[in-house]
Write a structure and sequence with these properties.
This protein is mainly α. The chain has 10 helices and 3 strands, in the order βααβαααβααααα. The chain is globular and about 65 Å long. This is Olfactory receptor.
Length: about 300
């Protein structure tokens, strides 16, 4: 029966992460730890930066935005994944699937844009230190952050809107543990040409263009650092960028595998593992990466724990 959103499918069925019943208990415990770790780590980042005046700088302002994105991303995917490991069936309503698609797509776009903005912040800090306060003033930071959220919302609204125009006549078995654009397009019985064109344009902008901008920023940073004569000065400059560069490498490798090079992810099991990396592992590791080698964040964490006590 057709409805106002042009679909005959009222619910989809998500695959479990593993069909092996013997491994479900292990995966349930592992993914629960990942989820709790991601929530706790990113919540601590937000609290530490908010309560510690010494961290009220542009770099940590964008890190707070990144932590919020990670909390939303992992909360969009992992609760449903955990439920599917406990409850047999994995059914998700059409509206629930579109909602998950909306927030997941928004988080992916926002994270890619934030990583680019953070690379620009590091470029200004290392290459234009005398003009840093002017180029990264609070109005500029607010404009950059607002642009990130606005562009990501517009992007996900476009993708979700185009998806709701498609007809799903059956089957309704999604070959994944979450609702995302590529897997849903495989189930549509309507032409998906427009969707595919928009996906390519989004991939080029969010994936390729932003990646090139990050690489250009780091190219300038490396050139500037090499001109520093003292070894201590070089080490200090590189240390301010190492955490961000590690996060960029981890995140882009998984996103490129899934969206930019979909042919390489022909194995559904490999695709599930990679999706888990950017929806669960990366959000859990980001707070660790940014805090382990950062003395200011460690001090802020201690202050948070002392306040809790």
């Amino acid at each position: 029966m057709a409805t106002g959103n042009h679909t005959a499918v009222e619910e989809f069925v998500l695959q479990s992460f593993s069909e092996d019943l013997r491994l479900r208990g292990l995966f349930l415990a592992l993914f629960l730890l990942l989820y709790l770790g991601a929530l706790a780590g990113n919540a601590l980042i937000v609290m530490a930066i908010s309560l510690h005046p010494g961290l009220h700088t542009p770099m940590y302002f964008f890190l707070t935005n990144l932590a919020v994105v990670d909390i939303v991303c992992t909360s969009t995917v992992l609760p449903r994944l955990l439920e599917n490991l406990v409850v047999k069936g994995g059914a998700i309503s059409y509206g629930g699937c579109m909602t998950q698609l909306f927030f997941l797509t928004e988080c992916l776009a926002a994270e890619l844009l934030l990583l680019t903005v953070m690379a620009y912040d590091r470029y200004v800090a290392v290459c234009r230190p005398l003009h840093y306060s002017m180029l990264m003033s609070w109005p500029v930071c607010a404009l950059l952050a607002g642009s990130v959220w606005t562009v990501s919302v517009c992007n996900t609204t476009l993708h979700t809107g185009l998806m709701t125009r498609l007809m799903f006549c059956g089957p309704n078995q999604i070959r994944h543990f979450m609702c995302e654009v590529p897997t849903l397009l495989l189930l549509s019985c309507s032409p998906t040409t427009l969707n595919n064109i928009v996906i390519v344009l989004a991939d080029v902008y969010f994936g390729v263009v932003n990646f090139l901008l990050i690489m250009a920023s780091y190219g300038c940073i490396i050139a500037s650092v090499l001109r520093i004569r003292s070894a201590q000065g070089k080490q200090r400059a590189f240390s301010t960028c190492s955490s961000h560069l590690l996060v960029v490498s981890l995140y882009y490798s998984t996103v490129f595998y899934t969206y930019i090079l979909p042919g390489s992810g022909s194995s559904m099991e490999n695709g599930k593992v990679v999706a888990l990396l950017y929806t669960a592992v990366s959000p859990m590791l980001n707070p660790l990466i940014y805090s382990l080698r950062n003395k200011d964040v460690k001090v802020a964490f201690r202050n948070v724990f002392s306040c809790i006590r």
